Amino acid sequence: MENRNLQRDLEQLDSILKExxxxxxxxxxxxxxxxxxxxMGGTSEAEAAxxxxxxxxxxxxxxxxxxxxxxxxxxxxxxxAPDVEITVIEPNPLSTQYQPGQTLVGGGLWPKSxxxxxxxxxxxxxxxxxxxxxxxxxxxxxxxxxDKGTKISYDYMIVAAGIVLNYGAIKGLEAAGEAYAAGDNKxxxxxxxxxxxxxxxxxxxxxxxxxxMQKFIADAKxxxxxxxxxxxxxxxxxxxxxxxxxxxxxxxxxxxxxxxxNANLHFYPxxxxxxxxxxxxxxxxxxxxxxxxxxxxxxxxxxxDGVNRIATFEHHWEEKGAWxxxxxxxxxxxxxxxxxxxxxxxxxxxxxKAPDEIAKSKIGSKKGWVPVKKExxxxxxxxxxxxxxxIAAVPMGKTGGSARKQYKVVVDNLISMMETGSIPKTNKExxxxxxxxLITNIGTVMLAEFNWASKKTGSGKNAALxxxxxxxxxxxxxxxxxxxxxxxxxxxxxxxxxx
Length: 499
Ligand SMILES: Cc1cc2nc3c(=O)[nH]c(=O)nc-3n(C[C@H](O)[C@H](O)[C@H](O)COP(=O)(O)OP(=O)(O)OC[C@H]3O[C@@H](n4cnc5c(N)ncnc54)[C@H](O)[C@@H]3O)c2cc1C
Fold this sequence. Notes:
The protein is α/β, with parallel strands linked by helices. It has helices at residues 6-20, 24-30, 36-40, 44-50, 68-80, 102-106, 186-194, 203-221, 242-256, 278-290, 356-359, 400-420, 476-493; strands at residues 59-64, 84-89, 127-130, 134-138, 143-146, 151-153, 156-159, 164-165, 197-198, 226-232, 263-269, 294-295, 299-305, 310-324, 329-342, 345-347, 352-353, 385-387, 434-441, 444-450. Strands 3-2-1-7-18 form a five-stranded parallel beta sheet, covered by helices on one side.
């Protein structure tokens, strides 16, 4: 594997740590990142970090989707089982783009080139890439057919096809259609620009967001009173923190320009709170108040009028109805109203869904996500299929941080299935860990770590990075983690199957 940017990234990391008087090894140790070892090489730490199960299993494994989860799984499986035949179906040559960096591109902190990585730099030895799209799934006969008519059979299949950005579901954005985060999304950006909207959910969109944000700030600086509107849709999304992170960065950039007083910043989430976990919710509300942000819960963006620069939301709530004699309780009446909001800067987090060709196939589900036993990530019906990453029907699991825990579980369980036809109870289970590094300013991050039981992570298998620190506090050290450590950990650690 050629690590094009590794040296540059490590040099940047060393220089910032030097300023803080910390060595790279100490910083990594401090954060409990065993992945540090893969960058240092040759030490016992390195051996521990790269320790994978050695197996002589044989058979054909097909991976659908060569993004973060799919390519990391291919690499770890190759490290573990050299005789397994591995094929990855992935249509996009830029599928290994570093998506968490899109927020930083949108805030003007990184150029787009910082996050563009080529899939073919991450192909593990002896893994076949089929640059096509899987469109037909026949799990009863263990075959998949691609858009180019190639039929591929498998003994085991791993589904890691991510999530679709469904911009076209918003009235006024029909021409934008559907998109993936990686790849060429210039047409999507043209549609968004035509209505004066921005969105960091694609790399091209993130680059355009920074351009639009600068115009917004220039208007505020010129004395114009401007309105910034930020949305969060009514579907599950990847990286639930990103809709807020871009708002915090807009605020930081306005402050830098001395123009904050002329800008109103308003957040419209579909949900009824800032975060599913009370402590993080309270922390965010306090951060919003301190920054004079406005917010309106239970608002879902349904239409954009680009000519008049008006965003339309469906505001929804429930009211107490009549007393039900039989149930002995009050009925609930669902109410909605249309709310029209003028904007100068509109950041859209689009509705998201599982890819239709999978959602509507035998391996999908009513809601689209691939149904799995959440601890083992094995398909609910087909025992030779696993799913992980954004497409898996796992509560709150749509982050790279979750995928980092999941791919090791999948490889371990897959090897057990190949060797013995079952998954022993002793195999490590996925415990629902996820993480949201919430950028709250240029220089601070609140590292919200939690699990699917809606608990802040503590010790044991759900351990937080630095469990003795209050996770609801905004900290500079987490900013360093976000800016300098998470990318190498992802691009060189996970994608080589070791972190
Ligand atoms: C703006 C933004 C900010 C984020 N911030 C963070 C963060 O701070 N921390 C964090 O942990 N995570 C963050 N994430 C989320 C993280 O990037 C994703 O959760 C992660 O990339 C999921 O990996 P995946 O492999 O499931 O999906 P992806 O990496 O998206 O890969 C899915 C792949 O499947 C392919 N595919 C789809 N359909 C088919 C098909 N039919 N046949 C073959 N291939 C197919 C696609 O082409 C794609 O390459 C962020 C994401 C975004 C967009």
